[in-house]
Amino acid sequence: MSLVQEFNDYRSRMNEKIMAADNKVIKRFFNLDTNTYMEGHVSVKTKEMIGLACSMVLRCDDCIKYHLGKCHEVGMTTEEIYEVFAIANIIGGSIVIPHFRRAVEYWEELQQNPPA
C-alpha cells in the first residue's frame, strides 16, 4: 500500500469514528477548519501553501501530508512546493529538516501515485 493511500485510508477511517461520536464542539471545530481553507479573498492555493509551511514549522507530519495532498489537488508544481519548503525551513530552522525529508518523500509519492 502506498504512503498516500495508507494516510488517506487511516484519516478517513478515524474521521468517521470521530464524527460518529456526534460531539457538537468537535464537529464545529472540524467545520471551522474546512471553512478556513475555502476560496475567499485569499485563494485556496495560497491558503494551502500557508497551511503547509505552518505545518512544517509546527512539525506535524500528518498535517504536512494533508496539505501536500491538497497542494497536489490544486495543481501546484514541484517548483512551487520546494519554494514553500524553503520558507518553512528558513522560518523553522534545522529542526524542520527531518519533516522536510518526509515531505519530499510524500510529495514524490503523490506525483507517482495520485489518490484515486
UniProtKB/TrEMBL annotation:
It comes from Shiella aurantiaca. It comes from the Bacteria. This is Carboxymuconolactone decarboxylase family protein. Residues 27-105 form the Carboxymuconolactone decarboxylase-like domain. The lineage of its organism: Bacteria, Pseudomonadati, Bacteroidota, Cytophagia, Cytophagales. InterPro entries: AhpD-like (IPR029032), AhpD_core (IPR004675), CMD-like (IPR003779).
